[in-house]
Amino acid sequence: MNELTKIILYCAAFYLFLAVLMYIFQRRLMYMPSRNLEHPEKYGLSLQEVGFSTRDNVKIAAWFSPAQDAKETIIYFHGNLGNLGTFARHEKFRAFMDKGFGVLAVSYRGYGKSEGSPGEAGFYHDARASLDWLIARGLPQGKMVLFGESLGTGVAVQMAIEYENIRALVLEAPYTSVLARAKEIHWWLPVKHLLKDTFDSIGKIAGVKAPVLILHGELDRTIPVAHGRKLLAAANEPKKGVFFPHVHHIDFAPVDLAREVEVFLASDAAKNITGQAFISMPDMR
């Protein structure tokens, strides 16, 4: 065996080794939960700690505040890092509540005080349990706004398919699919054959009947804004895209998000959604 053949074999073995490692540990790389979650009061929020069990018997924790003056309730599905109390998520909840919206912020399995381990199928169970909990309390689907942040956008899209009468679907920094983004990042790996959780939003969005609002930062490098624009193009009317020129992935001003949601819901009620994307200028902050 000559030296060149040995080098090729060593490289092939190393490549295979890396692929196997990525397959085995992919969920540890994809989901980065924190269990260190305080009571909402520690974050200055007047939210209740509530809980419910999923269809696969996992106990899920959540934060809840009812809506005021017949406003909608935001069901919030967070991203892959931290928990409900990290990355200023509590500031978003406060901004929504200041507008009179109700909030149900869901802590996925494996995050915060929820049982279980993270995974796509499990997250869908968690989301269904949260919506069913609200329905059991008498909240009609027409008063529910599904709000997904980053990884949570895939969860929100799936729920918008299953619960067809929701008021609206709002996606903050969404991807077309986790598979598509993984291909962009790990172009040197056969991710299509390795990835367990794909969150295929682009393949589902055409089935969403609710109004769709997409919020994305032009400077986002974690999930490039091209994903949000492509998802917007594939969504049904009524729809609207707001693309912030000076925002990255997680530095949205909470008051901006709350304002855009409120404006969108009011515009849709007036049947005044055009479907045209526009840029939210800095002086609107």
Structure description:
The chain is built from eight helices and eleven strands. Strand 9 (212-217), helix 7 and strand 10 form a beta-alpha-beta unit. The strands form two sheets. Strands 2-3-6-4-7-8-9-10-11 form a nine-stranded mixed sheet, with helices on both faces. It has a two-stranded parallel ribbon with strand order 1-5. 36% of the residues lie in helices and 19% in strands. The protein has one domain: Rossmann fold (3-Layer(aba) Sandwich), CATH 3.40.50. Helix 2 (89-98) crosses helix 8 and helix 3 packs across helix 4. It has helices spanning 3-30, 89-98, 120-136, 152-162, 178-185, 191-194, 225-234, 254-269; strands spanning 32-33, 48-53, 59-65, 73-77, 81-82, 102-107, 144-149, 168-172, 212-217, 239-244, 278-279. The chain is α/β, with parallel strands linked by helices.
Quick structural summary:
The protein contains 8 helices and 11 strands. It has 285 residues and is α/β, with parallel strands linked by helices.
Write the layout of secondary structure elements.
Layout: H1 3-30, E1 32-33, E2 48-53, E3 59-65, E4 73-77, E5 81-82, H2 89-98, E6 102-107, H3 120-136, E7 144-149, H4 152-162, E8 168-172, H5 178-185, H6 191-194, E9 212-217, H7 225-234, E10 239-244, H8 254-269, E11 278-279
Parallel strand pairs: 1-5, 4-6, 4-7, 7-8, 8-9, 9-10, 10-11
Antiparallel strand pairs: 2-3, 3-6
Q: Outline, from the CA principal axes?
A: globular
Radius of gyration: 20 Å
CATH homologous superfamily label = Alpha/Beta hydrolase fold, catalytic domain
**Average pLDDT number:** 91
Biggest sheet strand order reads: 2-3-6-4-7-8-9-10-11
Q: pLDDT below 50 for ≥5 consecutive residues: which ranges? A: 272-277, 281-285
* Tally of structural domains: 1
Relative strand content: 15-25%
- Helical element count? 8
H and E order = HEEEEEHEHEHEHHEHEHE
User: Which CATH class is shown?
Assistant: Alpha Beta
Helix content: 25-40%
Main beta sheet strand tally, sense and closure: 9 strands, mixed
Span from first to last CA? 67 Å
* The CATH topology: Rossmann fold
Return the structural class.
alpha/beta
